[in-house]
Amino acid sequence: MKELNVAVVGAGIYGINHVNAYTWNPNTNLVAVCDLNKEITDKIAQEYNVKTYNDVNEMLDQEEIDAVSIATPDAFHMEPALAAIRHGKPILVEKPLATSSEDAKKIIDEAEKYKVRVAVDYHKRWDPAAINVRNELQNPETGAPIRGYMSMDDIIDVPAKWFNWADKSSPVHFLGTHCYDQIRWYMGCEVEEVYAVGTKKVLKSRGVDTYDSIQAILKMENGCYWTVENSWILPEGFAKNNDGRTQILCEDAMFRIDSQNRGVEMFNTQKQRTPNSYFILNNCGRPSGFGIEPINDFVYCLQNDIPFIADGNDGLQAELIAEAVHQSLEENKAVKIKRD
Ligand SMILES: NC(=O)c1ccc[n+]([C@@H]2O[C@H](COP(=O)([O-])OP(=O)(O)OC[C@H]3O[C@@H](n4cnc5c(N)ncnc54)[C@H](O)[C@@H]3O)[C@@H](O)[C@H]2O)c1
């Protein structure tokens, strides 16, 4: 099978996982990496012996590229996405597809026009625990789902120290869209209406104008109600960078997932850690885990011309929910999801 020539745009904290995945994937040839930050591209050029660029159009004009990964900050996916699409390249966009449904639709419409495909990296769809529960939900003996709960939180360092763009995103865009996507995928239907409450206090006092925490109730087409909680202010001392739980009550079954303590505990003189041994691992230099799988799967789907596990429409649907949650927070009332 022909190797795919791939490129990565945005090589920060998460984009480097795309660079590592493509470096190791036997079916890809990483031809170029683009980042606005020259310090980053200089380091990557040296460490990975790959061509680097600081302008996405220049890279797309000069290199023979078959597919592009986009891992720029949440609110800045559209520009490189449209550039790649207009050069006829299929794209894998980090979640969320965009931070407005308008931008998400623009990406999808442009991709249709240029006849290229869009995948979105909702990596929770590759989490073995989630796959297991989703399969069980499809077992007729489980009965209909009645109520669901999902939480996903980050330690405060994520918005306050890791990024300088947290005020242009929110726990809803950054974390909530993961939950909304996963809930749609579990339920096999869409969200009809949302109601949300939230607090802006701690991050605002640190100069980051976004929500600390948001709780949203989602009414699903199948009659199931979900509560989704997302926060960006877990204390720095927490045993992991993030926390997460799921509980689903069905007519004849109940499921629980603890995404925080997955069975490995590490202790040193300062703190206890509970790393996620399934997410992204370095196995003698080789990247593996369910954080890497969607990147390899993008390549597999392109090479075999099969549908993506999470595509542009999934990205749009998660964003429509995120937008409605923000609207509900601002207007203090239930908001119906608007689909044209
Ligand atoms: N950090 C995480 O844990 C995590 C996990 C999963 C997904 N993601 C997603 O990955 C994306 C990137 O997040 P991150 O944590 O790597 O952020 P980051 O700030 O560490 O990296 C973003 C990089 O994109 C570069 N960039 C910005 N605009 C660009 C442009 N137009 N062209 C080229 N480069 C550009 C920046 O210079 C920066 O190096 C986000 O959408 C995020 O939600 C992050």
TrEMBL record:
InterPro entries membership: Gfo/Idh/MocA-like_OxRdtase_N, Gfo/Idh/MocA_Oxidoreductases, GFO_IDH_MocA-like_dom, NAD(P)-bd_dom_sf
Start and end residues of each Gfo/Idh/MocA-like oxidoreductase N-terminal domain: 4-122
Keyword DNA-binding part of the UniProt annotation: no
Top-level taxon in the UniProt lineage: Bacteria
Domain GFO/IDH/MocA-like oxidoreductase positions: 141-255
Keywords carried by this UniProt record: Oxidoreductase
GO molecular function: inositol 2-dehydrogenase (NAD+) activity; nucleotide binding
Keyword Transport in annotation: no
Pfam families associated with the record: GFO_IDH_MocA, GFO_IDH_MocA_C3
Matches recorded under SUPFAM superfamilies: Glyceraldehyde-3-phosphate dehydrogenase-like, C-terminal domain, NAD(P)-binding Rossmann-fold domains
Enzyme Commission numbers on file: 1.1.1.18
Broad EC category: oxidoreductase
Protein name: Myo-inositol 2-dehydrogenase
Species classification: Bacteria, Bacillati, Bacillota, Clostridia, Lachnospirales
